[in-house]
Amino acid sequence: MDRHRQARLLGHRVTATDGVDYTPGELDRDATFYVAGHRGLVGSAIVRRLESAGFDRVVGKPSAELDLKDRDAVFAYMGEIKPKYVVLAAAKVGGILANSTYPVDFLSDNMRIQTNVLDAAVANDVERVLFLGSSCIYPKFAEQPIREDSLLTGHLEPTNDAYAIAKIAGILHTQAVRRQYGLPWISAMPTNLYGPNDNFSPKGSHVLPALIRRYDEAASSGAGSVTNWGTGTPRREFLHADDMADACLHLLEHYDGPAQVNVGTGSDVTIREIADTIADVVGFQGDTEWDTTKPDGTPQKLLDVSQLAEAGWTAQISLQEGLERTVAWYRDHADALRQ
User: Fold this and answer.
1) Ordered per-residue pLDDT tens for the chain, 339 residues
2) CA-CA distance, 145 to 28, in Å (whole number)?
3) Any catalytic annotation for residue 330?
4) DSSP string over 33-64
5) pTM for the complete prediction?
6) CATH topology for 3-197+237-267+301-317?
């Protein structure tokens, strides 16, 4: 599809809209539901949750077959499947090392993915879209717990500011669609997620899967010690991907509004505490050392989840249970994981 054709499609519903007239309710189980990023940590959990809830037309396409950075390909695919609902869970993600080493990639790739999917959704009159961001959108020194209205009130954490800017743009894109087209699109900002289908690669993973792999390999090899980055003092909140998926469906059926909704547990632990818990779960008996020459990142990221609670949802999977399930999954799939 050429650029002029795309521009005409995007302009076909241009209206001046100050608000959205929409009442949330049960979604149509027979409608086509597109999950962008359906094989990832969050996307795969959302697919499982939707299927368990009775949706029988959940669709997705692997990145090898559909590059979401390719605008023409995204428009063609969306025009083919004609979804009624979309969850945008696709993103280029990584931990401190990856984000600080490749900021251009994290900014450019995520901006293109988001813009292409959201523009194609407008062009195809998608009724309901849920855009998923990240808690890193909030200022580094935001008041804890972090409320939704803390957005854009201070400086970002430098090690992942490029990724954060891309996600902030996604929120504003969703809000702009509400104003310009009157579509009831929403966005949610999850805390640190973990679970099946996570990225456990040593160079590209987030802190929790990185710790699981490090401690499990140390336990298997009989190593006497494990060395982690930083001081171990930063506090982080962790939410199992299956809980996140349940929250996504709940928001789609019970919430509408322009503000992003924080999704988390409402409680946090130090990196040192989570490391000790993982060591215990995998059976590591050695010592843990901390390389304080490496960055800690944001001192604390605890989300205020009162808006989510008001919408009627709270997390159900405890950290202990979630870690045990994730370690079991990791061990069952270790041979096929990304290196």
Assistant:
1) 444 334 334 433 333 344 789 999 999 999 999 999 999 999 999 999 999 999 999 999 999 999 999 999 999 999 999 999 999 999 998 777 888 899 999 999 999 999 999 999 999 999 999 999 999 999 999 999 999 999 999 999 998 999 999 999 999 999 999 999 999 999 999 999 999 999 898 776 788 999 999 999 999 999 999 999 999 999 999 999 999 999 999 999 999 999 999 999 999 999 999 999 999 999 999 999 999 999 887 788 899 999 999 999 999 999 999 999 999 999 999 887 755
2) 35
3) no
4) EEEETTTSHHHHHHHHHHHHTT---EE---TT
5) 0.90
6) Rossmann fold (3.40.50)
Q: Report the 10 Å Cβ neighbour count for 20.
A: 17
34, 77, 85, 163: the catalytic one is 163
DSSP state of 149: G
Provide the β-strand partners of residue 87. Answer: 35, 130
Helices first, then strands: H and E counts in the chain: 11, 13
User: What residues does each domain of the chain span?
Assistant: 3-197+237-267+301-317
